[in-house]
Specification:
- This protein is mainly α.
- It contains 34 helices and five strands.
- The protein has four domains: 58-153, no CATH class; 161-283 and 611-700, ATPase, nucleotide binding domain (Nucleotidyltransferase, domain 5, 2-Layer Sandwich), CATH 3.30.420; 291-506, no CATH class; 514-604, no CATH class.
- Helix content is 54%, strand content 6%.
- It has a five-stranded mixed sheet with strand order 3-2-1-4-5, sandwiched between helices.
- A hairpin with a 5-residue loop joins strand 1 (183-191) and strand 2 (197-207).
- The two termini are 52 Å apart.
Length: 705
């Protein structure tokens, strides 16, 4: 309660500069004041500007790449717009690509937002809204271009060009590919921001235009039943609807959850019943992540809590970040942030440890000060852990081992063909890990697949363990004492044993196994008679879905002829390209020398090694369907991703001009795209029981595009 009689009273700021006579006259006349100063009563304007600054910061890329993207996008979009206006032909913009890159900044100064035109499609995938906003000003940006002056795209036209034009043809293109040639199936399911469960279907096939293996999004499916049976029914229903034979599937890849890879009732078991002989591979990257996660559980529990606490401590306060940057400047270390520790990020644990070790002195100094004032968020606990003997030693040891695992993880995240080096690279790192704790005579006497890593008689003594050069040096520089060092080395041994056990359990290390045999896909190895096998039968019988038994004789004859050929040189841009072009070699009569061999080897290169490409689809979904656009329907999100994929496939990502296909241009000119759009709205009307006007308003709502 305020006692107005006993406090000093002052005049309100609103009336401080207003004459008392004026106020008295207002009271008597009961008129509205007209001379009062205009003071703001809220801060909404500031909040709006903060939002604009946040959006603008996301669009920053290098100036050279922006120029390449601008010209490629503008050519394609303007061509479609000309088609909408029933003009004949596609007229390229008057700015050539090489001239575009060298243009001065002020040439685009009339419309600053045009910088964002191309990067919008390629980076954020929010096609309709962003392009519509940017294309409004193309008349000014290209004031001397006849095409630019005629551009007129509103939300409706741009929406159906993207969804019922570009995305429509992209879907049909890949449906045709899957109908007519072999491919591998990659799937995974996830839940988006609107709690909609989506199954992404990606196909891996050999692209005869690019002469390489590509991964492409085929479709996304809304999941109503998340069981293995439900997912399998959804995928097979899609294949049947699009007339894609299951027999064309030669490989299957996904993460290693029981729903997908269960031996009794998983997705892969159901698929094997319909497609006997299909090649199944759990995601290599996911397997490496699981190996390290299981091994870390054998370390002292304080370590994982320490990593989580440090990585999350600075995410709660900008003041803490600023204070830490000041200490970084004092200690003279790189101003790197501590990354977050996330179980779903394959490389996060190793990256967190690496940065903490890099920032160790700065962190120690910061938490020494912070522990005296912060009694809530655990600064004292973090500081105590950093001062415990052995904490830094354990992090240094983990940094050494996890970098080996993470390097393999990074290698196999590639969408290029890497299956032929899987056995070699995993075996090499597995041997390096075993060398840390297995006796040297055991390593020399047995093959890797024969070593019993659970037999303690094979272990080195604790004093002979190898923990990495940096950790060994730190033990000499900062001794831990007899008991603490014994405990530390025992923990390291347990970690190494469990990591090795997980790797051996999840990967085929047999030197004579199928994965090892795939190394002959390397042309240099295949052309060396001393290293390549004399027959392909052992490998071929493992892939009955690729080569039937009745063709074994022809395949083996061609392989033996290939090994003995002297005129074949291993010159190629990619391994799949080498084997595909082998069919072009002819004998003296002009008859192809190899028919079965190129087909067999090319199909082996489309076998999956990871599901990283599917994970990238979900990352793009999260970019399109954010908290501001969470009302977007799944089919709209899918069409945006397919439109981006089509533009990228047409050369957009490499800076080339994207020119729409002639069929797409014809459909736009003849109004067929618009008819598809109207049919789609009609279908929505029938299914959702809403009016056509409401559906149209939904499609054109800028907050949902």
């Amino acid at each position: 309660m305020i006692d107005w009689q006993n406090i000093q009273q002052t005049e309100p700021p609103l009336t401080r500069r207003v004459l008392s006579e004026y106020i008295i006259s207002l009271i008597k006349s009961k008129e509205k004041p007209s001379a009062l100063p205009d003071f703001p009563c809220h801060t909404q304007v500031v909040e709006r500007n903060i939002k604009l600054v946040t959006q603008a910061s996301k669009s920053v890329t290098s100036s050279t790449e922006k120029r390449k993207i601008q010209i490629a996008t503008f050519d394609g979009i303007c061509g479609l717009n000309k088609a909408c206006q029933n003009d004949t032909g596609l007229i390229r913009t008057e700015y050539a690509m090489e001239d575009e890159i060298s243009l001065e900044e002020e040439r685009f100064s009339e419309v600053e937002s045009f910088e964002y035109l191309g990067t919008t499609i390629f980076n954020t995938v929010s096609l309709e809204l962003e392009l519509n906003e940017r294309l409004k000003n193309t008349n000014q940006a290209f004031h001397d271009s006849e095409i630019g002056k005629k551009v007129s795209l509103k939300k409706t036209k741009l929406s159906y060009i993207v969804q019922d034009g570009i995305a429509y043809y992209e879907k049909n293109y890949h449906y045709d590919v899957c109908r007519n040639q072999e491919f591998s199936l990659l799937i995974d399911e996830s839940t988006d921001i609107s709690v909609t469960q989506i199954l992404a279907v990606v196909v891996r096939f050999f692209d005869e235009k690019k002469l390489d293996v590509v991964d492409a999004l085929l479709d996304t499916i809304i999941v109503e039943n998340g069981s293995a049976q439900g997912l399998y029914h959804a995928v097979t229903a899609l294949m049947q609807e699009k007339n894609i034979p299951l027999s064309n599937i030669v490989g299957f890849g996904s993460d290693n959850c029981s729903t997908m890879m269960g031996a009794k009732s998983g997705f892969q078991t159901l698929l094997k019943k319909d497609v006997p002989g299909i090649f199944v591979m759990g995601c290599v990257c996911h397997s490496f992540s699981l190996c390290s996660s299981h091994a870390v559980k054998l370390l002292p529990p304080f370590l994982e809590s320490f990593l989580k606490n440090v990585s999350s401590y600075f995410s709660r306060s900008s003041k803490r970040l600023n204070d830490f940057r000041s200490i970084q400047d004092t200690v003279k270390v790189a101003p790197h942030k501590i990354p977050k520790l996330a179980q779903t990020r394959w490389l996060s644990r190793g990256n967190v440890i690496k940065v903490i070790l890099e920032q160790w002195d700065a962190l120690l100094l910061y938490f020494q000060t912070e522990s005296k004032v912060d009694l809530v968020d655990g600064a004292s606990g973090i500081y105590k852990t950093m001062n415990n003997r052995g904490s830094k030693h354990m992090l240094v040891f983990l940094d050494y081992i996890l970098q080996k695992v993470n390097s393999l993880n990074t290698e196999f995240q590639s969408e290029h063909f890497r299956l032929h080096v899987l056995h070699k690279m995993v075996s090499l790192e597995y041997a390096n890990i075993l060398n840390c704790f297995i006796e040297d005579d055991i390593m020399a006497s047995f093959r890797l697949s024969e070593i019993d890593i659970m037999n303690k008689k094979c272990y080195k003594k604790l004093d002979e363990l190898y923990l990495g050069g940096r950790a060994m040096a730190l033990l000499r520089k900062e001794p831990l004492g007899v008991e603490v060092e014994k405990t530390f080395k025992t923990d390291c041994l347990n970690f190494l044993v469990e990591l090795s056990r997980q790797i051996k359990q999840r990967f085929s290390l047999h030197e004579d196994g199928v994965i090892a045999s795939l190394s002959i896909l390397d042309p240099a190895l295949a052309l060396d008679p001393a290293k390549s096998p004399t027959s392909l039968v052992k490998l071929a019988i493992s892939f009955p879905s690729i080569i039937p038994e009745k063709e074994m004789n022809d395949l083996d004859d061609e392989w033996r002829s290939f090994r003995n050929s002297k005129d074949i040189t291993p010159i190629y841009n990619s391994i799949p390209e080498f084997w595909y072009k082998l069919r072009n070699i002819k004998d003296a009569l002009g008859i192809p020398k190899f028919e079965k061999l190129p087909c067999f080897m090319t199909n082996l290169t489309i076998l999956p090694h990871s599901s990283a490409s599917v994970e990238r689809v979900f990352s793009q979904v999260n970019l399109v369907k954010s908290k501001n656009t969470n009302s977007l329907k799944p089919y709209s999100v899918r069409d945006k991703l397919l439109a981006k994929q089509a533009i990228t496939r047409g050369g957009f990502s490499s800076g080339d001009t994207w020119e729409p296909a002639s069929e797409l241009v014809k459909d736009v000119m003849d109004g067929i795209c618009h008819k598809r759009y109207q049919k789609r709205l009609k279908d929505l009307q029938d299914s959702n029981k809403v009016t056509l006007k409401e559906v149209s308003e939904f499609e054109n709502d800028p907050d949902l595009l």
